[in-house]
Amino acid sequence: MGDYPSCEKTLRSLLDSVSPAGRRKAALLAQVARLCSYQQAHTLATETIARALKLDDSPQLRQVAVSIALRTRDHEAALPHLEVLLDKSPDDPRTIYYRGLVQLRRGEYQGSITSLRRGLELKALEKEARFELAVALRKAGKPREALAHLIDSLAAEPTLEPACYQASRCLLEIGGPRQVRGSAWLLGYFKALKNAADPSSRDHHLLAAGKAAEAWLARASARETLGDFSGALRNQQRAASLSPDSPMVNLHRARFFLRRGLLAEARKYLEPLEPPPRELQLKLRERASALGELNDGPGKEALLRLAACDWGTAEKPLEAALENTRQTDPSRATDLARLLLAKNPSSRDALRFLLLHTTDPQLIIPRLHYLGRLSRAEPGNTALREELDALRELLLGS
Fold first, then answer.
1. 279: how many CB neighbours lie within 10 A of its CB?
2. In the chain, which ranges are E strands?
3. Residue 308 has what pLDDT?
4. Residue 237: enclosing H or E segment and its boundaries?
5. What φ, ψ does residue 297 adopt, rounded to 5°?
């Protein structure tokens, strides 16, 4: 995800400098078409890729035409390109998967299943393919098999709203008291995800306006709201890579670390700003003052060390702060555990704490996620493996 309008402008400026009938021209047109599609200019994207194909109908450009047709939901337009590609490479998993996607969109649920499975062979498509395969299986009357794929997806990434909703539907279709109860749990969790995520999908509008860094920050805010601090930090870094000296990016990062209690790290991002925002400076002073007023003891010392550290050396201070707040301030401790996981994805302390705080039935998906991560961190722990298997069986309605 980048600055699509600027990229398109640059590519268009190159079009006049190349041979009007060569492959180089076709390749540039294909890139322009792809960028138009990303910006929701679907008619222009379709016209541009058609111009490119008149100059060069290579498999690479046919693949671009397929992706544009699928993005515009014009699945019939994708079929001729898919047929040509399959004639040349009848066993190509990507092309076969896209054919399955077209079949699924046309309502050919049973017929799409074999083709959609081929998408699981490609790492870049696996996440999308698993979901689409599950949808096809459910609509083909195979909710148990669909549910198994959806549970795998949610165990890996517990904030996937569409997968959560589809899993809830599968349990209802399987039927039975346990399944209906499980469906209600998942539906409750799905609603919580919907409420936490940004409902306006601002990032797409920002991208179309050429504001890629702002789009990544919008995504970072959504991940933070969901408690996915790892995702929030990744998206902040993507924004920073696009706009390294942006005051907007520095402000976002400063606010993030201020909310987490890393005051020195927050100051680091405020220092380049001229002048630093008064309201943030005031909040920093208030937070520092509040720490100073805490009762003396290990808890205060741990939070002071956390406030003074930078992100690069935050793991030990986070561990100490988590240990000293888990009993006295569970809400803050949950925040610290999530941040510790962002620093060390295999942190057993953080995973065990979060497991203790996901016992509510509506949090069965996050619990499955944390159990899976902890069992991988402790491969010899048979009790964890047994609990993980039992939880999967419960979700699968076994």
1. 8
2. none
3. 97
4. helix 229-242
5. 150, 180
